[in-house]
Specification:
By secondary structure, the chain is of the alpha/beta class. The protein contains 9 helices and 9 strands. It has 2 domains: 2-183, Aspartate Aminotransferase, domain 2 (3-Layer(aba) Sandwich); 186-269, Aspartate Aminotransferase, domain 1 (Alpha-Beta Complex). The longest helix has 24 residues, at 186-209.
Length: 270
């Protein structure tokens, strides 16, 4: 099922499966659009824990928060904004603890950046669990954020319901052409991925060397702890760099740039 970016897909899921009195369950911090769209649908968002020391989603705590009112569970993997990744084996074990009438949404917007993990996607679990939906996008590795192309692998039992709610003509012909061209140019995407992996290794080494608390990222950004995120954010903005300084209290989320930009950023942070 295709959508105009994953934000439309999230809205579509909420319009289809949530109503007043329902609960939408998620770890926190995570992508805020889940909570926004759940609220628009009239549902209540329940937050489970992310392990402070590692930034990993606590699946035991998530399972403990499932109630009779839970209708949708969100798993952003790798998670935004922590950047951390859950192995598929752990997600499979979690799925066994979820009631069959609760939809689990695995958001894999950043899955293409995962390294050193064979077959990191939860797509392999779709045939095992008919309450699992996996979301993907062309906005990240493929660089087509402005074209708004997202898609989901949807359980057969629910796709008709979602099609009934989906707006017609949601992806333009230009966006479809761009997505197809990007998909066919895997050599370019692999080059981009290798550049990002190099940047990620350099930033990890920098944070380690300077004793800056950070989470092990499997994305194109890193989350790190600072004394005053807003002050640092304003300082970096004066030098031409924009970072997320208010997503998580006490932390900054920073995307990777070009090698020259990253080198300058590291000098500014010292």
């Amino acid at each position: 099922l295709f959508s105009s970016g994953l934000d439309e897909m999230i809205a579509l899921i909420c319009r289809t499966f949530l109503e007043v009195g329902d609960e939408s369950l998620q770890p926190w911090p995570t992508y805020p659009e889940y909570q926004l769209q759940a609220a628009i649908a009239g549902a209540t968002t329940v937050n489970a824990a992310v392990t402070p020391a590692t930034g990993l989603i606590d699946l035991d705590d998530l399972a403990a928060h499932i109630t009779a009112k839970t209708k949708v569970i969100w798993l952003c993997n790798p998670n935004n904004p922590t950047g951390t990744y859950l192995p598929i084996s752990q997600i499979a074990q979690f799925m066994k603890r979820v009631p069959a009438d609760v939809l689990v949404v695995v958001d894999e917007a950043y899955i293409d950046f995962v390294a050193d993990v064979p077959n990191p996607s939860a797509l392999s679990l779709v045939t095992q669990f008919n309450n699992l939906l996996v979301m993907r996008t062309f906005s990240k590795l493929y660089g087509l954020a402005n074209f708004r192309v997202g898609f989901s692998i949807v359980p057969q039992r629910v796709i008709a319901k979602m099609q009934n709610v989906r707006l017609p003509y949601n992806i333009s012909g230009i966006s479809q052409t761009a997505a197809l061209a990007a998909w066919q140019d895997q050599a370019f995407t692999q080059t981009v991925k290798q550049q990002l992996l190099t940047a990620r290794q350099q930033w990890s080494a920098f944070f380690e060397a300077n004793h800056i608390q950070h989470y092990a990222s499997q994305t194109n950004f890193m989350l790190y702890q600072v004394a005053d995120p807003q002050a640092l954010g304003a300082f970096l903005k004066q030098h031409g760099y924009l970072v997320r300084d208010s997503m998580v209290p006490g932390w900054i989320r920073q995307s990777f740039g070009t090698p020259a930009q990253d080198a300058e950023m590291r000098q500014l942070l010292l």
